[in-house]
Amino acid sequence: MRTKLVVGNWKMNGNLDQNQALLNAVVAGTRELQNVKCAVCPPYPYLAEVQRTLENTHILWGAQNVSQFDLGAYTGEVAAEMLLDFSCHYVIVGHSERRSLFGEDNHTVAEKFKKVQDKGLTPILCVGETLAQREIGETERIIEEQLDAVIKLVGVDSLVKSVIAYEPVWAIGTGKTATPSQAQGVHLFIRNKIAKQSETTANGIQILYGGSVKSNNAGELFSMPDIDGGLIGGASLVASDFISICLAAQR
Ligand SMILES: O=C(CO)COP(=O)(O)O
């Protein structure tokens, strides 16, 4: 049985005071959780605060992005090695906002994935199609290309030390959640695709769903056989919502 995982992607939100209140509430509200892992990914400047607050708790943390380069002359970038100083566990790579707004292509995302793994951190690889791509029946092809770029660089067996997040672009921040069966269909496609190369990896890998997950739809999504939890945007900024979503993963 795969453990469920719920990760909050705070995106570019928060400040020291708000973060502290949110983290304290989430720690208290999820204390009784069993067999569910929870994590938060704050913006870089708050990693020290998050580390200080969450060390010695049951909640893990990570970063939202990383450089594809090692330490050096790359103004504005953050290397995977630096994230080790903050005891990060996870690093999100290839979020659709990075792909569409910051020009990250499949190859760059694969390089980032590799850098994260090389430092012993766990990448959360985001994949997903746009509405236009879904409407012309390209969902599987797009996701296959996104996965293949990574598999080509690191090999299929390395995926077992990663998490995949299926985030249909049309569902992110729109309030339009994929139906549980739409999401399940794509999750199964991803798992079957990996299984063709490695059954063990396919059975072990956690595949999260992301895109307008809220407290009122999380339970149904997480009950699908190939949905192993969620990557939560907006609702991860509201303590009571994020706690409810984490609790929904337990059922
Ligand atoms: O992009 C997401 C998480 O990475 C999803 O965001 P929302 O939950 O706000 O739709």
From TrEMBL:
The active site is at 95 (electrophile), 167 (proton acceptor). GO terms for molecular function: triose-phosphate isomerase activity. It is an enzyme of class 5 (isomerase). Keywords: Cytoplasm, Gluconeogenesis, Glycolysis, Isomerase. PROSITE patterns: TIM_1, TIM_2. Its EC number is 5.3.1.1. Substrate binds at residues 9-11, 173, 212, 233-234. Pathway: Carbohydrate metabolism; erythritol degradation; Carbohydrate biosynthesis; gluconeogenesis; Carbohydrate degradation; glycolysis; D-glyceraldehyde 3-phosphate from glycerone phosphate: step 1/1. SUPFAM superfamilies: Triosephosphate isomerase (TIM). InterPro entries: Aldolase_TIM (IPR013785), TIM_sf (IPR035990), TrioseP_Isoase_bac/euk (IPR022896), Triosephosphate_isomerase (IPR000652), Triosephosphate_isomerase_AS (IPR020861). One of its GO terms (biological process) is glycolytic process. It is found in: Cytoplasm. The keyword Phosphoprotein does not apply. It catalyses: D-glyceraldehyde 3-phosphate = dihydroxyacetone phosphate. Homodimer. Involved in the gluconeogenesis. Catalyzes stereospecifically the conversion of dihydroxyacetone phosphate (DHAP) to D-glyceraldehyde-3-phosphate (G3P). Belongs to the triosephosphate isomerase family. This is Triosephosphate isomerase. It comes from Nitrosomonas nitrosa. The lineage of its organism: Bacteria, Pseudomonadati, Pseudomonadota, Betaproteobacteria, Nitrosomonadales.
